[in-house]
Amino acid sequence: MAMPFVSPMSYARPKENRPHRFAYDYGSVDPGMFTPAPERNIPKRAPKRSVAYTIPLPDTQVPSPIEDDIQRQGHVLGVNALALSFQPVGFNTDAGGILFSGGRDGVVKAWDLNFPLCAKPDGGPWTIDRQRVRHARPGRTSLRASQVVHSDWVNDIVVVNGGETVVSASSDQTVRAWSPHRADERPQAVGSHLDYVKALAYSEHRRMVISGGLDRKIKLWDLAQGGLVASLQEFGDASVSSSVYTLACNMQGSLVVSGSPEKLIRVWDTRAGRQLTTLSGHTDHIRAVLLSADSELVLSGSSDSTVKLWSMRMRRC
Question: Which residues make Cβ contacts (< 8 Å) with residue 311, sequence separation at least 6?
């Protein structure tokens, strides 16, 4: 059963949602260091070294020394997700585009790309002014804002509300929203899953965020009104192979495409709350999906080392 939406004021962090300490051990081999042996050369390994890092709690009101340090630098652990926005709303157009990054340190960052931009004639998102790029070298990328949003890995991020807000999904089982252009803005809870949240998609027309996770559920969140719109339970058995690894949707939010370890692409009708069809052909986990603007084509990438283009009309690639 889907978890009910809870407002940021009453949101209770699960017991497991507490600071995480990550430790990595690694060693290296010096190919020039060999010990003579009767039959073969045995490489000597360099001494093992450790790197440890503690993720501070995202709801801490008074920044800790660790969090202060995070605000002034790049990610200290791997980057899992990227999102790009050329919308001037909320940011000075001189920023030249904003790159959002989410990492395994639980941090979401906003970077000024400093590309020269120009408005499109149709009023759509701004684009890079290639004439100015030819005559002027773009400025250096700079860190605009940084925030500890989650207490575990950030797995996916999407930019919503015309570039004003970034929504992130995390292994701490939550979906959160943060407005980086507001100086005193703290991350707000959008909702939660019963397991890691792995993927997000965004419907601009309905202002709806779609999340999927290892609890084998796809949830629809209304950003305008706040709250859970619907929860789509994965069909079939309740095995781990039904987990949601990746999501895509059309602009209207009427169709959602999901990929999972079960080697199937599932197509969902969000208005009816049911599965329309499945696309089979991959032989390993499906890691990425894209849906065309006209909802006629689906692109999928899999651990079987193939990328497939599917026709929604023909139900085949």
Answer: 296, 297, 317
Q: What is the per-residue pLDDT for 148?
A: 92
What's the 3-state SS for 100-153? EEEECCCEEEEEECCCCEECCCCCCCCEECHHHHHHCCCCCCEEEEEEECCCCC
Cβ count within 10 A of residue 43? 12
Q: Using the structure block, give the residue that is written with the tokens 């690639």.
A: 317
Q: Are 258 and 268 in contact (CB under 8 A)?
A: yes
pTM higher than 0.90 for the full model? no
How wide is the angle at C-alpha 155 spanned by C-alphas 228 and 88, nearest 5°?
75
Residue 151 has a pLDDT of 92
| b/e code 63-91 from CB counts within 10 Å (16+ = b) | eeebbeebeeeebbbeebbebebbbbebb
Residues of the chain with pLDDT under 50: 1-15, 24-35, 37, 62, 91, 234-237
Nearest to 114 by CA among 89, 138, 146, 145: 138
C-alpha count within 13 angstroms, C-beta hemisphere, residue 64: 11
Q: How far apart are CA 47 and CA 65, in angstroms?
A: 30
Pairing of strands 142-148, 107-112: antiparallel
| Euclidean distance between CA atoms 211 and 249, whole angstroms | 11
